[in-house]
Amino acid sequence: KIKIVTIGGGSSYTPELIEGFIVRKDQLPIKEIWLVDIEAGKEKLEIVGNLARRMVKKAGLDWEIHLSLDRKEALKDADFVSTQFRVGLLDARIKDERIPLKYGVLGQETNGAGGVFKALRTIPVILDIVNDMKKLCPNAWLVNFTNPSGMITEAVLNYGNFEKVVGLCNVPINHNFRESKLIGKSPDELIFQYAGLNHHHWHKIYDKSGDDLTALVMEKLFEQKESTMENIEFVPFCEEQIRDLGMLPCSYHQYYYLTDDMVKKEVVNYENHTTRAELVKKLEAELFELYKDPNLKDKPEQLTKRGGTHYSDAACELICSILNNKKTEMVVSTRNHGALTDLPYECVVEVSSIITGIGPRPLTFGKFKPAMRGMVQLMKAMEEVTIEAAVTGSYAKALQAFILNPLIPSGEIAKTILNEMLLAHKDYLPQF
Ligand code: NAD
Ligand code: G6P
Ligand code: MN
Hints:
By secondary structure, this protein is of the alpha/beta class. It has 16 helices and twelve strands. Helix content is 47%, strand content 16%. A six-stranded parallel sheet has the order 3-2-1-4-5-6, sandwiched between helices. A three-stranded antiparallel sheet has the order 7-8-9. Strand 5, helix 6 and strand 6 form a beta-alpha-beta unit. The chain starts with a strand and ends in an 8-residue tail after the last helix. The protein binds nicotinamide-adenine-dinucleotide, 6-O-phosphono-alpha-D-glucopyranose (G6P) and manganese (II) ion. The site of nicotinamide-adenine-dinucleotide (NAD) has 29 residues, from helix 4.
């Protein structure tokens, strides 16, 4: 029987995770689930933990649900550890989004200056968690959801020297659902080929006879007037440019291919106090009001308003596939190992992979066309420098990451935003 530990257990997404485990109960011999949080998240942990207990009871399962503020106690002898924590809570995300926008520069949870700062705050904490895991559960798998998911996974592998880690994201699943529906199919009737980095990947779609449906899906997507991800404002892609790629972009590419238009939208949100983090704060308060209801015994529908919806599918399926050597195909952040020939061998990429008992085995994609190669190489270099900045606390490296980031203008403005953000987040940046 297995022990699963979730760090950041007080997250409003936890009921979806529990639902994912319940759905797979026949493949998951669970004994205990430990939900871990910190003092600041104690109230949320209790509310969501009690809902988790009601859900498990309703399903007629004898799983123990433990709530803990003591990470070390929880990690002892764990088999799987999932991470979904937010260093500095939503208030830090509000700063990540609002400070750059004050200067007309994109502020976003995982992109631009916001994404760099989320990495700077989170990497020291994940490396501490990995140190605890090495002592308390050295054979456990770490299933990381904490953003920026790709960079966090790379930090664990290349600086934490901990190999049993997989990074996850719900974007590929959301694309698969939506795009198969557009052509009247279900995802399991199609073959998806993903290649790139977390929140910066492209994909192709084939049917089972090997026919390439990418161009067909692309034309259907051009008719749509909303973005695939709930958390991303819609601006239509430039059709000629996307056709020229020959691959489907992910929703996050809107920030890179349509920077000016996206910034204009976000500046309006900045002025109206409707940036995504500010909206999420309200949404989260509503969700926790619902979770408090002792008669609620299921995941409420409103959770689908969060950008991370369907993420439990990824997390629970991954755990199930490793445990049962299912050899399922999933899109995960894992070591490149030559799958993308344009990127370093040891770096982390997000690619279609086969999930086995020894973890993900990335499928070879090969070379990108120059238009994608240029972006992905720049983004990977920016990620590497950001991770180095997070580990060393070097101001020069942090500035270097800003200058490399395609969403941050260089010059005086980069320094101004960097300095202001370093000050605003100083309580969560002990390395600087
Ligand atoms: P949240 O603000 O609800 O935070 C989750 C919990 O983490 C909170 O209860 C908080 O108290 C706790 N926490 C903060 N610091 C902690 C620490 N040091 N140790 C343990 N717990 C700590 O966040 P959320 O909206 O549920 O998102 C959680 C994380 O998951 C974020 O990093 C978010 O970016 C990420 N996320 C990723 C994906 C993906 O596609 N990979 C999808 C959704 C969310
Ligand atoms: C997306 C992404 C996540 C991101 C989240 C934000 O789906 O895959 O990585 O963090 O949604 O959602 P939110 O509701 O918090 O804005
Ligand atoms: Mn994601």
